[in-house]
Structures are given as C-alpha cells and as structure tokens.
Design goal:
Helix content is about 45%, strand content about 15%. The protein is built from 12 helices and 7 strands. It has a 7-stranded mixed β-sheet with strand order 3-4-2-5-1-6-7.
Amino acid sequence: MSKTKVIAFANNKGGSGKTTTCSNVGCAMAMEGKKVLMIDGDMQLNLTISYFDEEQALEFAQSGKNIHTAIKEEKDLNDFIVSTGIDGLDLIPSSSLMSGIEFDLFAKWQREFVLKKCLERVRAKGYYDYILIDSPPTLGGWVMNVMCASDYLVIPVEASPWGLFGLANMFEFCNQAKNMAPKLEILGIAITKADERKKYFKQTMDILKETDGTRLFENYIRVDSAVEWAQDNSKPVVAYKKTSRSAVEYINLTKEIMEYANR
C-alpha cells in the first residue's frame, strides 16, 4: 500500500489564496525533507508560474508536457513530471487548454475517476510523500475528478466579507464527492489574507469556528507584501524570503497540515 498522501486545495470562490497556499505548502514540505509532487489543475497556470517564468510555463503548455494532455489522452502522469529546481519538489504543469477540460471529460468512461487512474502508477511507486493538487475556482467535473483522486481536502478561505460566500456550496459539493470517494476527508479550512485590525476578521473566524465537523487550522496567513514580491519573482514566499512573516506562517501551517494528514 502506497504511503503517498494526496491533498487537494479547492475553493469555488476566486481570490481565496488557494494557489498561493498550495505552492507554499508544497515548498515548505520539501524544505522539511519530504518528497512532493504538485499538480497545476488550473487553466490560469498560476501554480506553474510560481516556479517558472511565463515563457517556460507557456512552453510547457504548448509542448504537451502538461496535465491537460495527460488527462485528455489518459496517460500515466509519471511522463509529465518536471523538476522545479527545488530539491524534493516536482510539478506537473498546466495549460490554458484546461478551459475545455469539462468537454474532454464528458464522453469518458467513469469520467469522475480519470485523474485517479492517471495517478495510480505515481502513487504505486511510493516515491512521493505528498501529492498536492491545485484546483480551479469552479465546481464541476474536473474538480470532482480532483476530489475523487484525493485523500484530503484543504479549503483556503480569504478573511474578508465575501470570503465566506459560496462556502455552503463547497461543502455540499464535497458531500457529493464523498458519495463516490468515501475516504475523502476535509482536512481543514486555512484562513488567508487575514488582517487582524479589521472587524470582519474576527467575524470570519467566529463563524468558521462554529462550523460543525470541520477543522479550522490554528495557523493562518496574514496580509504580507512579501507574497506579491515572491510571485513577481516566480517563487513561493517560503523560498523567496524565508524570514518574512507570511513565510513563517506558511511553514507553521504546513507543519499543522502534515500533523493531521499523518494521524
């Protein structure tokens, strides 16, 4: 039985900090000595651009060495892995053609499990400790694929008045996914873009703490300009400026995620 744990990062609300969280958690895991594979499942390529410049990201998209080609042709994902240049951290890039993935999945046999099947040989090797999947801000067949292929789900939520919008739909969708993938577990909600000076931050935290049956991670990520500077340099902030406030917070959040995933 493979020891590899698959964790999806998903939220149907855009701007939740989902990709940034996935990118930094993956890098922080690698910094802890873990072997990590990240999968960029979003047509915006933001996870790919977290590690490569735009020119290289577009080259991956055009060359076919990306998740879209793998899913459309139902290929073994081992053939689509590239190194990020960070020790222990690999990536399967995305493509703008992921905008049509719903159409590509529509006619496939057992279409909710295509990603799971493509991941089978990667998991069977047991080389990676963790596989992290970044999802687009939608709820559809592709995100259902991501959830059915995962052991755990992390839901990043922006600490803002609109941050909770649509969260009920997210939970309902997760319940639907659990009907097909009963072992899927919501690992927790990760608060991002927090500003403790704002009244709505406390309101957001209070509401989420009252959410039955769902863990709220103790470590949250505050607003920090270092994140934007890191993104501008195609790096996660934990690699760009490890001493920054947000980097320390992401490292602590990562430790918390690993603790719960290994229970």
